[in-house]
Design a protein that fits this description.
Layout: E1 24-28, H1 33-46, E2 49-56, H2 64-73, E3 78-83, H3 85-98, H4 110-128, E4 133-135, H5 144-155, E5 160-162, H6 164-167, H7 172-181, E6 196-200, E7 203-207, E8 237-244, E9 247-251, E10 254-255, H8 258-271, E11 276-282, E12 288-294, H9 296-312, H10 315-333, H11 340-353, E13 358-365, E14 368-375, H12 383-386, H13 400-407, H14 409-418
Parallel strand pairs: 1-2, 1-4, 2-3, 4-5
Antiparallel strand pairs: 6-7, 7-12, 8-9, 8-13, 9-10, 11-12, 13-14
The chain binds arginine.
Amino acid sequence: MVDRPRAPIAKTASYEAEPHEVGRVLLLYSGGLDTSVMLKWIQDEYEAEVVALTVNLGQPGEDYDVVRGKALDLGAVDCRVVDAREEFAHEYVLPAIKANALYGGGYPLFTALGRPLIAKLAVAAARETGCDTIAHGCTGKGNDQVRIEATVAALAPELRIIAPVRGWQMGREEEIAYAREHGIPVKGGTEAPPYSIDDNLWGRSSEGGPIEDLSEPPRDDVFQLVTRPEEAPEEPQLVRVEFERGRPVALDGERLGLVDLLERAGELGARHGCGIVDQIEDRIVGLKVRDLYEAPAAALILTAHRELEKLVGTIHQNNFKPGLDRQWAFLVYAGLWQEPLLGDLNAFMDRVNEQVTGAITLKLFKGSASAVARSSPNALYDPALAGFGESGGLFSQASSPGFIELWSLQSRMAYGLRNRGGQK
Ligand code: ARG
Protein backbone atom coordinates (compact mmCIF):
# COMPACT_ATOMS: atom_id res chain seq x y z
CA MET A 1 0.00 0.00 0.00
CA VAL A 2 1.47 3.31 -1.07
CA ASP A 3 1.30 6.38 1.11
CA ARG A 4 -1.45 8.71 0.11
CA PRO A 5 -0.03 11.81 -1.53
CA ARG A 6 -0.06 14.81 0.75
CA ALA A 7 -3.03 17.13 0.82
CA PRO A 8 -2.78 20.27 -1.33
CA ILE A 9 -0.32 22.77 0.06
CA ALA A 10 -1.58 26.05 1.45
CA LYS A 11 -2.44 28.61 -1.15
CA THR A 12 -0.04 31.40 -1.97
CA ALA A 13 -1.69 33.28 -4.83
CA SER A 14 -5.14 34.83 -4.87
CA TYR A 15 -6.24 32.69 -7.82
CA GLU A 16 -5.41 29.36 -6.18
CA ALA A 17 -8.38 27.33 -4.93
CA GLU A 18 -9.00 26.50 -1.30
CA PRO A 19 -10.23 22.89 -1.07
CA HIS A 20 -13.77 23.95 -0.13
CA GLU A 21 -14.03 26.12 -3.27
CA VAL A 22 -13.49 23.16 -5.59
CA GLY A 23 -16.70 21.64 -6.88
CA ARG A 24 -16.15 20.91 -10.55
CA VAL A 25 -12.73 20.88 -12.14
CA LEU A 26 -11.67 21.40 -15.73
CA LEU A 27 -8.55 19.25 -16.05
CA LEU A 28 -6.05 19.84 -18.84
CA TYR A 29 -5.58 16.22 -19.78
CA SER A 30 -2.88 14.75 -22.00
CA GLY A 31 -3.47 11.09 -21.30
CA GLY A 32 0.00 10.75 -19.79
CA LEU A 33 0.89 9.53 -16.33
CA ASP A 34 0.78 12.84 -14.43
CA THR A 35 -2.59 13.97 -15.65
CA SER A 36 -4.10 10.48 -15.38
CA VAL A 37 -3.06 10.26 -11.75
CA MET A 38 -4.46 13.77 -11.29
CA LEU A 39 -7.78 12.81 -12.80
CA LYS A 40 -8.27 10.18 -10.12
CA TRP A 41 -6.63 12.10 -7.30
CA ILE A 42 -8.76 15.21 -7.75
CA GLN A 43 -11.95 13.18 -7.53
CA ASP A 44 -10.77 11.57 -4.29
CA GLU A 45 -9.03 14.49 -2.68
CA TYR A 46 -11.63 17.19 -3.37
CA GLU A 47 -14.67 14.99 -3.90
CA ALA A 48 -15.06 17.00 -7.07
CA GLU A 49 -16.29 16.19 -10.54
CA VAL A 50 -13.72 16.35 -13.31
CA VAL A 51 -14.24 17.44 -16.90
CA ALA A 52 -11.19 16.60 -19.03
CA LEU A 53 -9.96 18.74 -21.91
CA THR A 54 -7.41 17.55 -24.44
CA VAL A 55 -6.09 19.97 -27.02
CA ASN A 56 -4.77 18.87 -30.39
CA LEU A 57 -1.94 21.19 -31.44
CA GLY A 58 -0.62 18.75 -34.02
CA GLN A 59 1.39 16.49 -31.73
CA PRO A 60 2.36 13.60 -34.01
CA GLY A 61 1.00 10.10 -33.45
CA GLU A 62 -1.65 10.94 -30.86
CA ASP A 63 -4.85 8.87 -30.82
CA TYR A 64 -7.49 11.15 -29.33
CA ASP A 65 -10.15 8.45 -29.13
CA VAL A 66 -7.84 6.50 -26.86
CA VAL A 67 -7.11 9.58 -24.72
CA ARG A 68 -10.82 10.33 -24.45
CA GLY A 69 -11.68 6.74 -23.56
CA LYS A 70 -9.02 6.73 -20.87
CA ALA A 71 -10.34 9.93 -19.30
CA LEU A 72 -13.88 8.56 -19.17
CA ASP A 73 -12.64 5.23 -17.76
CA LEU A 74 -10.89 7.14 -14.99
CA GLY A 75 -14.14 8.80 -14.01
CA ALA A 76 -14.24 12.07 -15.94
CA VAL A 77 -17.85 13.22 -16.32
CA ASP A 78 -16.94 14.51 -19.79
CA CYS A 79 -13.87 14.61 -22.00
CA ARG A 80 -13.59 17.23 -24.70
CA VAL A 81 -11.05 17.01 -27.47
CA VAL A 82 -10.47 20.29 -29.28
CA ASP A 83 -8.66 20.36 -32.60
CA ALA A 84 -6.91 23.73 -32.29
CA ARG A 85 -4.32 23.25 -35.03
CA GLU A 86 -5.69 25.98 -37.31
CA GLU A 87 -5.87 28.55 -34.55
CA PHE A 88 -2.46 27.54 -33.25
CA ALA A 89 -0.87 27.86 -36.68
CA HIS A 90 -2.50 31.17 -37.63
CA GLU A 91 -2.71 33.02 -34.32
CA TYR A 92 0.38 31.75 -32.51
CA VAL A 93 2.95 30.23 -34.88
CA LEU A 94 2.50 32.79 -37.65
CA PRO A 95 3.24 35.78 -35.38
CA ALA A 96 6.31 33.84 -34.19
CA ILE A 97 7.45 33.41 -37.79
CA LYS A 98 7.00 37.12 -38.44
CA ALA A 99 9.12 37.80 -35.34
CA ASN A 100 11.76 35.17 -36.26
CA ALA A 101 11.14 33.94 -32.76
CA LEU A 102 13.94 32.03 -31.09
CA TYR A 103 14.65 32.10 -27.35
CA GLY A 104 18.20 31.67 -26.17
CA GLY A 105 19.39 31.54 -29.74
CA GLY A 106 17.86 28.15 -30.60
CA TYR A 107 14.42 27.42 -29.11
CA PRO A 108 11.54 28.23 -31.47
CA LEU A 109 9.09 28.44 -28.56
CA PHE A 110 6.63 25.76 -29.62
CA THR A 111 5.67 24.90 -26.03
CA ALA A 112 5.60 28.54 -24.98
CA LEU A 113 3.29 29.35 -27.91
CA GLY A 114 0.95 26.46 -27.15
CA ARG A 115 0.34 27.19 -23.48
CA PRO A 116 -1.61 30.45 -23.74
CA LEU A 117 -3.88 28.85 -26.34
CA ILE A 118 -4.42 25.78 -24.17
CA ALA A 119 -5.18 28.05 -21.22
CA LYS A 120 -7.63 30.09 -23.28
CA LEU A 121 -9.44 26.94 -24.42
CA ALA A 122 -9.51 25.70 -20.83
CA VAL A 123 -11.22 28.92 -19.74
CA ALA A 124 -13.84 28.56 -22.48
CA ALA A 125 -14.47 24.91 -21.66
CA ALA A 126 -14.63 25.60 -17.92
CA ARG A 127 -17.25 28.27 -18.48
CA GLU A 128 -19.27 26.08 -20.83
CA THR A 129 -19.30 23.11 -18.49
CA GLY A 130 -19.86 24.99 -15.24
CA CYS A 131 -16.44 24.33 -13.73
CA ASP A 132 -15.16 26.58 -10.94
CA THR A 133 -11.54 25.45 -11.08
CA ILE A 134 -8.90 24.68 -13.71
CA ALA A 135 -6.28 22.02 -13.00
CA HIS A 136 -3.04 21.52 -14.90
CA GLY A 137 -0.20 19.05 -14.56
CA CYS A 138 2.79 21.40 -14.55
CA THR A 139 5.44 21.14 -11.87
CA GLY A 140 6.57 24.07 -9.75
CA LYS A 141 9.95 24.23 -11.43
CA GLY A 142 9.07 25.10 -14.99
CA ASN A 143 7.86 27.87 -17.24
CA ASP A 144 4.63 26.16 -18.24
CA GLN A 145 2.90 26.81 -14.91
CA VAL A 146 3.61 30.52 -15.42
CA ARG A 147 2.20 30.56 -18.94
CA ILE A 148 -0.98 28.72 -18.05
CA GLU A 149 -1.73 30.48 -14.79
CA ALA A 150 -0.92 33.95 -16.07
CA THR A 151 -3.33 33.45 -18.97
CA VAL A 152 -6.14 31.92 -16.91
CA ALA A 153 -5.82 34.62 -14.24
CA ALA A 154 -5.90 37.35 -16.90
CA LEU A 155 -8.85 35.96 -18.88
CA ALA A 156 -10.97 34.58 -16.08
CA PRO A 157 -10.47 36.19 -12.67
CA GLU A 158 -13.54 34.31 -11.45
CA LEU A 159 -11.92 30.87 -11.94
CA ARG A 160 -9.59 29.21 -9.44
CA ILE A 161 -6.53 27.13 -10.26
CA ILE A 162 -5.05 23.98 -8.75
CA ALA A 163 -1.74 22.42 -9.73
CA PRO A 164 -1.60 19.11 -7.86
CA VAL A 165 1.79 18.02 -9.22
CA ARG A 166 3.30 21.14 -7.69
CA GLY A 167 1.83 20.35 -4.32
CA TRP A 168 2.09 16.59 -3.98
CA GLN A 169 5.50 15.17 -3.47
CA MET A 170 5.19 12.05 -5.59
CA GLY A 171 8.15 11.17 -7.76
CA ARG A 172 7.74 9.11 -10.88
CA GLU A 173 8.00 5.81 -9.00
CA GLU A 174 5.33 6.86 -6.52
CA GLU A 175 3.06 8.02 -9.31
CA ILE A 176 3.43 4.66 -11.01
CA ALA A 177 2.63 2.92 -7.75
CA TYR A 178 -0.41 5.19 -7.24
CA ALA A 179 -1.50 4.47 -10.79
CA ARG A 180 -1.20 0.69 -10.33
CA GLU A 181 -3.12 0.87 -7.10
CA HIS A 182 -5.96 2.84 -8.69
CA GLY A 183 -6.19 0.88 -11.91
CA ILE A 184 -4.69 3.58 -14.09
CA PRO A 185 -3.00 2.03 -17.13
CA VAL A 186 0.71 2.92 -17.25
CA LYS A 187 2.06 3.04 -20.79
CA GLY A 188 5.59 1.62 -21.02
CA GLY A 189 5.87 1.46 -17.23
CA THR A 190 9.26 2.10 -15.70
CA GLU A 191 10.91 1.06 -18.97
CA ALA A 192 9.62 4.06 -20.94
CA PRO A 193 12.37 6.56 -21.84
CA PRO A 194 12.74 8.73 -18.75
CA TYR A 195 12.22 12.10 -20.39
CA SER A 196 9.68 14.85 -19.98
CA ILE A 197 8.39 15.43 -23.49
CA ASP A 198 6.20 18.11 -24.98
CA ASP A 199 5.37 18.47 -28.64
CA ASN A 200 3.15 20.09 -31.24
CA LEU A 201 3.33 20.89 -34.94
CA TRP A 202 6.12 23.46 -34.38
CA GLY A 203 8.50 21.14 -32.51
CA ARG A 204 9.29 18.68 -29.75
CA SER A 205 11.27 19.02 -26.54
CA SER A 206 12.84 16.52 -24.19
CA GLU A 207 14.07 17.34 -20.73
CA GLY A 208 15.09 15.51 -17.58
CA GLY A 209 16.55 12.10 -16.80
CA PRO A 210 19.92 11.46 -18.44
CA ILE A 211 19.67 14.81 -20.27
CA GLU A 212 20.46 16.52 -16.95
CA ASP A 213 23.99 15.14 -17.05
CA LEU A 214 25.73 17.97 -18.88
CA SER A 215 28.93 15.99 -19.22
CA GLU A 216 27.26 13.47 -21.55
CA PRO A 217 26.11 13.86 -25.15
CA PRO A 218 22.41 13.08 -25.69
CA ARG A 219 21.44 9.43 -25.92
CA ASP A 220 20.06 8.33 -29.26
CA ASP A 221 16.69 7.39 -27.72
CA VAL A 222 15.91 11.10 -27.20
CA PHE A 223 15.38 11.75 -30.88
CA GLN A 224 12.02 10.37 -31.94
CA LEU A 225 11.15 12.99 -34.55
CA VAL A 226 14.25 14.07 -36.45
CA THR A 227 16.58 11.62 -38.20
CA ARG A 228 20.04 11.92 -36.74
CA PRO A 229 22.12 13.96 -39.21
CA GLU A 230 24.68 11.18 -39.66
CA GLU A 231 21.87 8.89 -40.84
CA ALA A 232 20.18 11.46 -43.09
CA PRO A 233 20.22 10.98 -46.89
CA GLU A 234 23.57 11.32 -48.64
CA GLU A 235 21.93 13.47 -51.32
CA PRO A 236 20.93 17.06 -50.54
CA GLN A 237 17.39 18.18 -51.33
CA LEU A 238 16.32 21.63 -52.45
CA VAL A 239 13.01 23.06 -51.27
CA ARG A 240 11.51 26.33 -52.36
CA VAL A 241 9.54 28.17 -49.67
CA GLU A 242 7.24 30.96 -50.86
CA PHE A 243 5.99 33.74 -48.60
CA GLU A 244 3.26 36.33 -48.93
CA ARG A 245 3.40 39.21 -46.47
CA GLY A 246 5.47 37.15 -44.07
CA ARG A 247 3.29 34.07 -44.24
CA PRO A 248 4.59 30.85 -45.81
CA VAL A 249 2.10 29.89 -48.54
CA ALA A 250 3.73 27.28 -50.80
CA LEU A 251 6.39 24.58 -50.85
CA ASP A 252 7.99 23.74 -54.19
CA GLY A 253 5.24 25.58 -56.02
CA GLU A 254 2.37 23.81 -54.28
CA ARG A 255 0.07 26.16 -52.36
CA LEU A 256 -0.82 24.77 -48.95
CA GLY A 257 -2.84 25.83 -45.95
CA LEU A 258 -0.64 26.82 -43.04
CA VAL A 259 -1.15 23.65 -40.98
CA ASP A 260 -0.38 21.39 -43.95
CA LEU A 261 2.58 23.50 -44.93
CA LEU A 262 4.10 23.37 -41.46
CA GLU A 263 3.52 19.62 -41.27
CA ARG A 264 5.08 19.11 -44.69
CA ALA A 265 8.06 21.31 -43.82
CA GLY A 266 8.46 19.32 -40.61
CA GLU A 267 8.57 16.04 -42.51
CA LEU A 268 11.16 17.33 -44.97
CA GLY A 269 13.34 18.76 -42.23
CA ALA A 270 13.02 15.63 -40.10
CA ARG A 271 14.14 13.45 -43.00
CA HIS A 272 17.29 15.56 -43.45
CA GLY A 273 18.21 15.83 -39.79
CA CYS A 274 17.33 19.52 -39.47
CA GLY A 275 16.34 21.34 -36.30
CA ILE A 276 18.14 19.46 -33.53
CA VAL A 277 19.18 21.89 -30.78
CA ASP A 278 21.01 21.04 -27.56
CA GLN A 279 20.69 24.12 -25.40
CA ILE A 280 21.26 25.34 -21.87
CA GLU A 281 18.29 27.52 -21.10
CA ASP A 282 17.51 30.18 -18.52
CA ARG A 283 14.02 29.50 -17.25
CA ILE A 284 12.13 32.48 -15.92
CA VAL A 285 11.81 30.79 -12.53
CA GLY A 286 15.55 31.07 -12.10
CA LEU A 287 16.75 27.61 -12.99
CA LYS A 288 19.17 26.76 -15.75
CA VAL A 289 18.23 23.56 -17.56
CA ARG A 290 19.35 21.59 -20.55
CA ASP A 291 16.79 21.07 -23.29
CA LEU A 292 16.97 18.91 -26.38
CA TYR A 293 14.79 20.25 -29.13
CA GLU A 294 13.69 18.74 -32.42
CA ALA A 295 12.10 21.49 -34.47
CA PRO A 296 12.41 20.60 -38.14
CA ALA A 297 9.56 22.80 -39.42
CA ALA A 298 10.95 25.82 -37.59
CA ALA A 299 14.46 25.10 -38.85
CA LEU A 300 13.23 25.45 -42.43
CA ILE A 301 10.59 28.14 -42.15
CA LEU A 302 12.44 30.50 -39.81
CA THR A 303 15.62 30.26 -41.86
CA ALA A 304 13.75 31.04 -45.06
CA HIS A 305 11.78 33.86 -43.46
CA ARG A 306 14.87 35.54 -42.02
CA GLU A 307 16.60 35.33 -45.39
CA LEU A 308 13.69 36.89 -47.20
CA GLU A 309 13.33 39.64 -44.63
CA LYS A 310 16.99 40.53 -45.11
CA LEU A 311 16.47 40.84 -48.83
CA VAL A 312 13.52 43.24 -48.64
CA GLY A 313 14.45 45.27 -45.53
CA THR A 314 16.58 48.38 -45.52
CA ILE A 315 19.83 48.43 -43.57
CA HIS A 316 18.01 50.33 -40.82
CA GLN A 317 15.14 47.88 -40.59
CA ASN A 318 17.52 44.94 -40.66
CA ASN A 319 19.62 46.39 -37.85
CA PHE A 320 16.65 47.33 -35.70
CA LYS A 321 14.28 44.38 -35.98
CA PRO A 322 16.40 41.63 -34.34
CA GLY A 323 16.30 43.56 -31.06
CA LEU A 324 12.50 43.61 -31.17
CA ASP A 325 12.44 39.97 -32.30
CA ARG A 326 14.41 39.08 -29.18
CA GLN A 327 12.01 41.06 -26.98
CA TRP A 328 9.04 39.33 -28.60
CA ALA A 329 10.56 35.91 -27.96
CA PHE A 330 11.34 36.79 -24.36
CA LEU A 331 7.79 37.94 -23.56
CA VAL A 332 6.33 34.79 -25.08
CA TYR A 333 8.85 32.57 -23.36
CA ALA A 334 8.09 34.34 -20.10
CA GLY A 335 4.38 33.60 -20.33
CA LEU A 336 3.13 37.15 -20.84
CA TRP A 337 0.90 36.58 -23.87
CA GLN A 338 -1.53 39.21 -22.54
CA GLU A 339 1.17 41.88 -22.07
CA PRO A 340 0.24 44.98 -24.14
CA LEU A 341 3.83 45.37 -25.32
CA LEU A 342 3.41 42.11 -27.19
CA GLY A 343 0.48 43.62 -29.06
CA ASP A 344 2.56 46.70 -29.84
CA LEU A 345 5.35 44.49 -31.14
CA ASN A 346 2.90 42.47 -33.22
CA ALA A 347 1.71 45.65 -34.93
CA PHE A 348 5.31 46.41 -35.82
CA MET A 349 5.97 42.84 -37.00
CA ASP A 350 2.86 42.90 -39.22
CA ARG A 351 3.86 46.21 -40.71
CA VAL A 352 7.41 45.11 -41.53
CA ASN A 353 6.14 41.81 -42.92
CA GLU A 354 3.92 43.55 -45.47
CA GLN A 355 7.02 43.58 -47.67
CA VAL A 356 8.06 39.99 -46.98
CA THR A 357 6.84 38.41 -50.20
CA GLY A 358 9.00 36.17 -52.35
CA ALA A 359 10.73 32.82 -52.35
CA ILE A 360 13.76 31.28 -50.72
CA THR A 361 15.26 28.01 -51.85
CA LEU A 362 16.80 26.01 -49.04
CA LYS A 363 19.30 23.22 -49.39
CA LEU A 364 18.66 20.48 -46.84
CA PHE A 365 21.60 18.27 -46.13
CA LYS A 366 22.59 16.24 -43.08
CA GLY A 367 21.26 18.59 -40.45
CA SER A 368 21.63 21.91 -42.22
CA ALA A 369 19.03 24.03 -43.98
CA SER A 370 20.65 26.94 -45.74
CA ALA A 371 19.46 29.41 -48.32
CA VAL A 372 20.88 28.87 -51.79
CA ALA A 373 18.52 30.96 -53.94
CA ARG A 374 16.33 34.02 -53.34
CA SER A 375 13.79 36.09 -55.21
CA SER A 376 11.33 38.82 -54.33
CA PRO A 377 9.43 41.56 -56.12
CA ASN A 378 10.35 43.73 -53.12
CA ALA A 379 14.05 42.91 -53.03
CA LEU A 380 16.15 46.01 -52.45
CA TYR A 381 18.66 44.47 -54.76
CA ASP A 382 19.57 45.44 -58.28
CA PRO A 383 22.25 43.41 -60.02
CA ALA A 384 22.85 46.34 -62.35
CA LEU A 385 23.85 48.45 -59.36
CA ALA A 386 25.58 45.84 -57.24
CA GLY A 387 27.54 44.13 -60.05
CA PHE A 388 31.30 44.32 -59.99
CA GLY A 389 31.72 44.31 -63.77
CA GLU A 390 30.27 47.63 -64.83
CA SER A 391 31.29 50.91 -63.32
CA GLY A 392 28.46 52.86 -64.95
CA GLY A 393 24.76 52.81 -64.10
CA LEU A 394 23.04 54.69 -61.30
CA PHE A 395 25.61 53.84 -58.70
CA SER A 396 28.36 56.37 -59.10
CA GLN A 397 31.58 55.01 -57.70
CA ALA A 398 33.06 58.45 -58.24
CA SER A 399 30.80 59.71 -55.43
CA SER A 400 32.23 57.26 -52.91
CA PRO A 401 35.26 59.26 -51.69
CA GLY A 402 33.00 62.21 -50.83
CA PHE A 403 30.68 59.90 -48.95
CA ILE A 404 33.58 58.36 -47.03
CA GLU A 405 34.90 61.77 -46.05
CA LEU A 406 31.60 62.86 -44.51
CA TRP A 407 30.56 59.47 -43.14
CA SER A 408 33.80 59.06 -41.18
CA LEU A 409 34.05 62.72 -40.10
CA GLN A 410 33.05 62.42 -36.45
CA SER A 411 34.90 59.17 -35.91
CA ARG A 412 38.10 60.66 -37.30
CA MET A 413 37.75 63.80 -35.20
CA ALA A 414 37.20 61.79 -32.02
CA TYR A 415 40.08 59.50 -32.82
CA GLY A 416 42.35 62.48 -33.34
CA LEU A 417 41.32 64.11 -30.04
CA ARG A 418 41.70 60.96 -27.99
CA ASN A 419 45.10 60.25 -29.37
CA ARG A 420 46.54 63.77 -29.01
CA GLY A 421 50.22 63.53 -28.29
CA GLY A 422 50.41 59.80 -28.96
CA GLN A 423 51.64 58.56 -32.36
CA LYS A 424 49.02 55.89 -33.00
N1 ARG B 1 12.06 24.57 -22.01
C1 ARG B 1 10.94 24.71 -22.88
C2 ARG B 1 10.05 25.80 -22.38
O1 ARG B 1 10.18 26.26 -21.28
C3 ARG B 1 10.20 23.42 -23.11
C4 ARG B 1 9.32 22.98 -21.97
C5 ARG B 1 8.73 21.66 -22.27
N2 ARG B 1 7.70 21.29 -21.35
C6 ARG B 1 7.59 20.09 -20.84
N3 ARG B 1 6.59 19.87 -20.06
N4 ARG B 1 8.43 19.11 -21.12
O2 ARG B 1 9.20 26.25 -23.10
